[in-house]
Specification:
The structure is a single chain. The chain contains four helices and no strands. The chain is mostly helical. The protein has two domains: 10-46, no CATH class; 62-101, no CATH class. Helix 1 packs across helix 2. The chain is elongated and about 85 Å long.
Length: 101
C-alpha cells in the first residue's frame, strides 16, 4: 500500500500511521491532547482545591528582615548574643555587622 496523504483522507492516514509510523501517530495523539487539557485542567484543579498562587517576591530579604522578625518575636537579645558569638568564632566577620534599632 502506498503512503497515504493526511489531507485527502485523515481517518485512513491515522490508521496507516498507527501501523507503519507509530511515532507520527502517537505524536498526533499527544499533540491533540494539549488544547483539551487547556480547557479541562483548570476546573479539575479548582475541584481538588488548588487555588491561586501567591505573588512572587520582587526583592530578596536581607539580614535586616531577620532582625526585624527577631524583634517582633521578642528574641532581639538572643540574636545579638548569637551574632556576637559568631563574630568571636570567625574573627569578627558576620554578614550582619550592625543591628538596627
Amino acid at each position: 500500500m502506498a503512503p497515504v496523504s493526511f489531507w485527502s483522507t485523515p481517518g485512513t492516514y491515522i490508521h496507516w500511521a498507527a501501523r507503519h509510523k507509530p511515532a507520527i501517530f502517537w505524536s498526533m495523539v499527544v499533540g491533540s491532547m494539549g488544547p483539551v487539557v487547556v480547557v479541562v485542567a483548570p476546573p479539575i484543579r479548582r475541584f481538588f482545591g488548588d487555588g491561586p498562587r501567591s505573588q512572587i517576591p520582587l526583592t530578596y530579604p536581607g539580614e535586616s528582615v531577620n532582625i526585624q522578625h527577631a524583634q517582633h518575636a521578642g528574641r532581639k537579645q538572643e540574636l545579638e548574643q548569637e551574632i556576637g558569638a559568631y563574630r568571636e568564632d570567625h574573627d569578627g566577620y558576620h554578614p550582619a555587622t550592625t543591628i538596627e534599632q
